[in-house]
Amino acid sequence: MSEEVTYATLTFQDYAGARNNRHGNNLRKKGHPAPSPIWRHAALGLLTLCLMLLIGLVTLGMMFLQISNDINSDSEKLSQLQKTIHQRQDNLSQQLGNSNNLSMEEEFLKSQISSLLKRQEQMAVKLCQELIIHTSDHRCNPCPKMWQWYQNSCYYFTTNEEKTWTNSRKDCIDKNSTLVKIDSLEEKDFLTSQPLLMFSFFWLGLSWDSSGRSWFWEDGSVPSPSLFSTKELDQINGSKGCAYFQKGNIYISRCSAEIFWICEKTAAPVKIEDLD
């Protein structure tokens, strides 16, 4: 009984194996390879990778579209901003142009006013000079009493005492003035026309500066050669001391000599309200 069971079992197993062998042979004969678990996993991995790549491409495409839309939107905003800036620049240029025109008009008006004031001042001076001819102590006179008015200066001729050049200079300082300085040939002619200067000697504000080894006026300026004749220049260049004026000429003397002197100071402005 035991042998029969064993035989039946062996016979079944051999039959099953033979059947499987026949089935495999039949598949190979028909051209179908036997499926392999490794290839199935590889195919599944490739499919997954393709899906991921596809998803990535779709995502990149969507991002590209979004960025493109953002760029277009920013470009439109930038274009609008540039238009606004250009408009404001045009407005500013127009305002500056108007401002420049106003500045030019303002400068023109200031120039006209300045010219009118200067002309008014000149007319006031001429009128005051005419008034002084008839009334020497007229209140429009820009110089103190006992002072002589010429152009923009007042002159004081001292004839009641004689002093050295240094003391004469001090007296002029006490009178808020300086020893006279000749600035032009016209001023020289004015001094020459004064009767007192025809026969007397008067100190000028010109002296030799030993430290600077040159001639200087009281204000520190150097005398202009055009104010002197050749004879006067020869005397000045060959002498050292202090200058005095007599009969329309300039001479040099020792500063310790005692003679008359002339003080000079700036005349006050002529006031229009003092012309009546």
Automatic annotation (TrEMBL):
Coiled coil: none annotated. It is found in: Cell membrane. InterPro entries: C-type_lectin-like (IPR001304), C-type_lectin-like/link_sf (IPR016186), CLEC12A/B (IPR042916), CTDL_fold (IPR016187), Ly49_N (IPR013600), NKR-like_CTLD (IPR033992). The chain crosses the membrane at residues 38-65. The keyword Disulfide bond applies. This is Macrophage antigen H. Gene3D superfamilies: Mannose-Binding Protein A, subunit A. One of its GO terms (biological process) is natural killer cell inhibitory signaling pathway. Residues 150-264 form the C-type lectin domain. Keywords: Cell membrane, Disulfide bond, Glycoprotein, Lectin, Membrane, Phosphoprotein, Receptor, Signal-anchor, Transmembrane, Transmembrane helix. One of its GO terms (cellular component) is external side of plasma membrane. The lineage of its organism: Eukaryota, Metazoa, Chordata, Craniata, Vertebrata. It comes from Macaca fascicularis (Crab-eating macaque). Its main location: membrane. The keyword Disulfide bond applies. It is a single-pass type II membrane protein. One of its GO terms (molecular function) is protein phosphatase binding.
